[in-house]
Amino acid sequence: MKLESYIRIFAGVMILISVALTHFVSPWWLLFTVFIGLNLIQSAITGFCPPEIVLRKLGIGTECCAKGEGKDGKCC
Q1: How many other CB atoms are found less than 10 A from the CB of residue 11?
Q2: Do residues 1 and 54 lie in contact, with contact meaning Cβ atoms separated by under 8 Å?
Q3: Which domain holds residue 27?
Q4: Which residues contact 70 (CB under 8 A, 6 or more apart)?
Q5: Is pLDDT above 60 for 71?
Q6: Among 8, 34, 63, 73, which is least packed by CB within 10 angstroms?
Q7: 33 in a structural domain
Q8: Looking at the domain assignment, is residue 43 inside a domain?
Q9: 3-state secondary structure the chain
Q10: Which residues have C-beta within 8 Å of that of residue 75, sequence separation ≥ 6?
């Protein structure tokens, strides 16, 4: 799987967690959902994505680079 797919899965899981926390704990957890949405918008505009940095350091999503499937040595 490409790194981009892992980032989408990560964002989806974070949103589901924040919705569950909003339902079971406090409505203030909706601010976490807002933060996630704002981060997705800024990463689309600027290209800077903190989860991408963390996942690359963990070696997640780099298997396509090892196979030579990415262009210019990049997977995404």
Answers
A1: 17
A2: no
A3: 3-66
A4: 64, 76
A5: no
A6: 73
A7: yes
A8: yes
A9: CCHHHHHHHHHHHHHHHHHHHHHHCCHHHHHHHHHHHHHHHHHHHHCCCHHHHHHHHHCCCCHHHHCCCCECCECC
A10: 2, 3, 4, 61, 62, 64, 65, 69
* Domain membership flag for residue 50: yes
* Interval 25-65: pLDDT, tens: 999 999 999 999 999 999 999 999 999 999 999 988 877 65
Number of other CB atoms surrounding residue 47 within 10 Å: 8
pTM of the full structure? 0.74
Q: Does a structural domain hold residue 61?
A: yes
Structural domains counted in the chain: 1
User: Residue 15 has which token pair?
Assistant: 């949103």
Residues in contact with 15: Cβ distance below 8 Å, sequence separation at least 6, in sequence order: 33, 36
Note the maximum CA span of the chain. 47
As a whole number of angstroms, the distance between CA 45 and CA 27 comes to 29
- Taking the C-alpha atoms of residue 4 and residue 7, their distance in angstroms, rounded to an integer, is 5
